[in-house]
Amino acid sequence: MSRDARWKSLLELLVERGRLDVEEAAADLGVSAATIRRDFDQLAEQQMLVRTRGGAVVHGVSYELPLRYKTARNASEKERIAKAVAGLITVGEAVGLTGGTTTTEVARALAVRADLASGSPALTIVTNALNIANELAVRPQFKIVVTGGVARPQSYELIGPLADGVLSQITMDTAVLGLVGFDVTHGATAHDEAEAAINRLLCERAERVIVAADSTKLGQRAFARICATDRIGTLVTDNAVDPDTVTRFEEAGVKVVAV
Q: Counting beta carbons within 10 angstroms of the beta carbon of residue 117, is it exposed (0 to 12), middle (13 to 18) or buried (19 or more)?
């Protein structure tokens, strides 16, 4: 197991359990206790966790797994979802993309669409995600608009009131929303209230809103509400979604596309 894969697994276990001891982690990952101690020390130096006697606990201000360690989760499902979402976008649209692993895949799917290879612009992309802007900025056929704000290390998203000035002056055809949880009753949610506020603004400035989320996020809710279910026009998810869940969303007026 590579160091990056091991670190991702350790952080996922830590987020899930809240606390890990060295021997427990070594047994779970099939490596030596000395390796785990070294990993814990190096992750603590990066403020990804807090070192304790004999183990580690979740960092007090890092209550969600940072984006760079989430890319392998449900990767094939996210790629299918991203391709389907990209197929819903029309040439010439202004498209808002929130941050997240699935929306990053949507950006990549848009970048390789043959009919979007040229144009002036082929698409206008509005995003508060630095990694998405960085990937698409090299595509001259895309006009990239980045909101202002303060960078959030966990998700590479810009948050805070500086984004209001940009978003209040524009309108979009479509907003593609990545999220932590989407529930018929509680709506679309995120871990961080500042992140949720920017995502809410993106949704408010768009004519239609598409949620791109794998089935593990459906029926779940997180701390901060982005918007109510009736603001969402389409949900694109994977084909492992529970049929009852599909029925509940459709009864609430959401078109469900399972891929």
A: exposed
